[in-house]
Amino acid sequence: MIDTRKDWDTYFMDIAYMVSTRSRCGRRHVGAVLVQGKKLLGTAYNGAPMGMPDCSEAGCMISEEVSLVQVDGEEKMVKKQRCIRTIHAEQNLLLFTDRIDREGSTVYVTDEPCWTCANMLANSGVVEIVFHRSYPKDTDKVTSMLNSKEIIFRQLQLYEPPNETLTSVSN
Ligand SMILES: [Zn+2]
Ligand SMILES: [Zn+2]
């Protein structure tokens, strides 16, 4: 008999995508789940603090950042806009879970963590981070930091999210 069940990576990433549909930020819907062994210990998405208006009510709060990047050996200033109204999914996940549950756990997150989230996850007891969509802006520094912390950091390359969880967002 062929085992047609979903593998665990697909199973937990599907849940992360389901959770991401709760997000009300028009720019990015991110979901994250905490897994200990095969047990789901927490879910979170990016959103404004409880009781505060979210992006769908008050609009995104756009902040423009400038960062220095290397392009063909030359330093270039690159402007980036991001929404700062929301607490990122990974940070909400840390706010809603206990340290003791996180020791040795895995985080599945729909999007590659930004620098701040990766930094916080690195200090949270989590030993593995699995993501699907790339966020190239911070990849280099996030990867080298997580490598030196010996945290497993991997992308699900062949994964396909459930169709109903994909909402069109403006970038
Ligand atoms: Zn927003
Ligand atoms: Zn983040």
**How much of the polypeptide forms β-strand, as a percent range?**
25-35%
Mean pLDDT: 92
Structural class: alpha/beta
Radius of gyration: 16 Å
Report the biggest beta sheet as strand number plus sense, adding barrel if it closes. Answer: 5 strands, mixed
How widely separated are the two ends?
A: 45 Å
Task: Provide the CATH topology of the domain at 8-48 and 86-156.
Answer: Cytidine Deaminase, domain 2
Low-pLDDT runs of 5+ residues are none
**Percent in helix:** 25-40%
Please tell me about this protein's structure.
Helix content is 27%, strand content 29%. The model has no long low-confidence stretch (mean pLDDT 92). It starts with 7 loop residues before the first helix and ends in a 16-residue tail after the last strand. The radius of gyration is 16 Å and the shape is globular. It has 171 residues and is an alpha/beta fold. It has helices spanning 8-20, 55-58, 89-95, 99-102, 115-122, 139-148, and strands at residues 31-36, 39-45, 62-71, 74-83, 106-111, 128-133, 152-155. The chain has a five-stranded mixed beta sheet with strand order 2-1-5-6-7, sandwiched between helices. The structure holds zinc ion (ZN) (2 copies). Residues 25-27, 55, 60, 83, 85-86 line the site of one zinc ion. One zinc ion is lined by residues 25-27, 55, 60, 83, 85-86.
